[in-house]
Amino acid sequence: MKHLVNVCWMYHDIMDLYGDKGNIMVLKKRCLDRNIEFHLDTCGIGEQKDLSQYDLIFLGGGADKEQISLIPDLLSRKENIKKAMDEHTFVLLICGGYQLFGQYYIAADGSKIEGLKFYDYYTDTGKEGKRCIGNIILEADLDGLKTKIIGFENHGGQTENVKSPLGKVLKGYGNSFDAGYEGFYDGKILGTYLHGPLLPKNPQVADFVITKAIQKRNPDFSFNDLQPLEDLFEEKARKALLDRFQIK
Amino acid sequence: MKSLSILSTKISAFLLGLVGRGGSLPGSIGLKLDPNILQKLTFDGPVILVTGTNGKTSTANMIADLFDRAGYSVVSNRKGDNLKAGICTALLTNSSLSGKVKANACVLEVDELNIRHILPFIPVRALVVNNFFRDQLDRAREMEQLIDSIEKVLPEYDQELILNGNDPNVIRLALKAPKAHCSYFGIAKNKYSTDQTKEASEGKFCPCCGSKLVYNYYQYSHIGNFYCENCDFKTPVLDVELSDIDLSKENFKLGDMLIHSPYEGMYSMYNCAAVLAVAKHFDVDLKYALEVFAHAPQPKGRNEHFVKEGQECILNLIKNPTGANEVMKVIDKDEQDKVVCIVLNDHEQDGTDVSWIYDTFFEKICKESTKGVVCTGTRAYDMALRIYYENYKGKIEIYNSIDEAIQKCLHSGLKCYAIATYTALLPTRNAIVKEMN
């Protein structure tokens, strides 16, 4: 049977900092190369959309000022997003999107922005405007799939009280300066500060996200059901950075 | 300490000059000896600062040339050492020991985040601001914080602001400068103006009230003619407005006068508009501006052409999505078969975060007439992935050495477009010169 991945990219016109569109490009190509149908939709401020109809919701990062403008719209969709998550729509969140699924975040100017409060984590701002910036490498375990995740972090936000982080930091900062762990993953959402963008250099994470999305319609589908791809450039790009930071 | 500071800067600049160096080090020494040296200097004639993301160096150099041709004696940091120390080098090496700058015009290119260290301390008569784009975000943090750092020193500034009226991020500076007088430059609607933009865009919201900004048209990226749907923030009346843009002939009109732009691309025309706005404000005769445009030197690695025995190579610097998109447009326009060599480094000056390559329209070069893409540099594989995920059908090759990559391209028998990030530009240029000489 032919599988389908139906994606909704929320606020794509606002939350598009740091090349996040690369994540969508990767999901699309890795689906199409396997003859999996890929459908991309977007959802902007004020648009009528039932998010529970999608297999995957993607929300990237934006500049503080622009991010604040979408808060009322996002909060108005809280029930609908909850429904989507309950009905196994997988959610991929980068940076600002990640923060907004928690309790609140404090913007660089000190103002407090309420989140969707689906989770207990919350985000303070870095002391004296300090930001966690640089290459970052994690050791992650995604439902038994062990993989190193390579990316670039650039965030002032210090996310605390994270119950189930995405991975252990091998190089870089993580959720906060001294966190030692990065991101959040609980089977329903994957939230992370990693740009780079995240998916081109992390094909296993990309395939994992595709698997989770397919599982919405086909609960028995598993990661190993995905036809393997060559990943020639991916592996070399990964090796270049793992070697640079002497991580085996 | 003032004289000692000036003397030390002069001596170190002289000694470093002997070994072919200079730049910001002499100024750093001067600042060590007297951290307040800038405010102790005295100036004759106008002091003009030029800042913005793209086009600072060529704009500042054209303005320096403008005053030079108009008979002024000009001090300028022409090589683009635009941090505080580099600016001190330029000023102190041209000062008397009593602290008098020996010139009657100063034209200084200033890094955006350094405006706050310069503007309050010397008698600036005009601040010229070209544009604000995402540029090396890991260095400059988000653009918002960058603009904020400039806004903080504007409330007491009471001279001229010369602003790009088509950039909402630039004209918002006027709101924070109640004592200053503002004049605006820009470009009228033309055949390249579009209703929509797909390019990485800043300034989607009104800086006054946060409502959505509506664009009557875009020139490129977020540069265009706009208004807020809620308050009265909008493109101001332009004091210098270019029209009848022709990008293939590189011409524009000022009033009825047809002028040839010294550089390619819409963004270069904005640099010309800035120069004309400065000339207007300081009552410099237009003929000197025309002379500047006619004789502007072509900077290295900015659409620099090399030809040898029928083999053609064009070198371009790329440093952020907006500048890079303009380069993509130039390559896209060329229907000839070609190879493209991309040199992507991730050193400090390139920006250590390479995710910006996904904000750049590399799809424009992933077409039939591009027979091969050769990637090199410290992030060659990231670049290869970017092209690969664009579904590029041709051959993608990777070389560890820039020399090998360039040799490969120049022996392909096809026209070669080489594009390189900041720290890769010189090694790439050297590799081309070695092959083509």
Structural summary, described in words:
The complex is a heterodimer of chains A (248) and B (437). With 248 residues, chain A is α/β, with parallel strands linked by helices. Chain A has helices spanning 21-32, 64-68, 71-76, 78-86, 96-100, 203-217, 232-244; strands spanning 4-10, 37-43, 56-59, 90-94, 104-106, 112-114, 122-125, 132-142, 145-155, 157-160, 167-171, 181-182, 184-185, 189-192. The relative contact order of chain A is 0.16. The mean pLDDT of chain A is 94. Chain B has two domains: 2-295, Mur-like, catalytic domain (UDP-N-acetylmuramoyl-L-alanine:D-glutamate ligase), CATH 3.40.1190; 302-436, Mur ligase, C-terminal domain (Protein-Tyrosine Phosphatase, Chain A, Alpha-Beta Complex). Chain B has helices at 2-18, 25-33, 56-69, 84-92, 115-118, 137-140, 143-151, 168-171, 266-281, 286-295, 321-333, 380-388, 402-410, 422-436, and strands spanning 47-51, 74-76, 105-109, 126-129, 160-164, 181-187, 213-220, 223-228, 240-246, 251-254, 257-260, 302-308, 311-317, 338-343, 370-376, 395-398, 415-420. In chain B, the strands form three sheets. In chain B, strands 2-3-1-4-5-6-9-10-11 form a nine-stranded mixed sheet, with helices on both faces. A six-stranded mixed sheet of chain B has the order 12-13-17-14-15-16, with helices on both faces. In chain B, strands 7-8 form a two-stranded antiparallel sheet. Chain B is globular. In chain B, 32% of the residues lie in helices and 22% in strands. By secondary structure, chain B is α/β, with parallel strands linked by helices. The longest helix of chain B is centred in the first third of the chain and has 17 residues, at 2-18. The chains are: A alpha/beta (248), B alpha/beta (437). At the A-B interface, helix 1, helix 2, strand 8 and helix 7 of A face helix 7 and helix 12 of B.
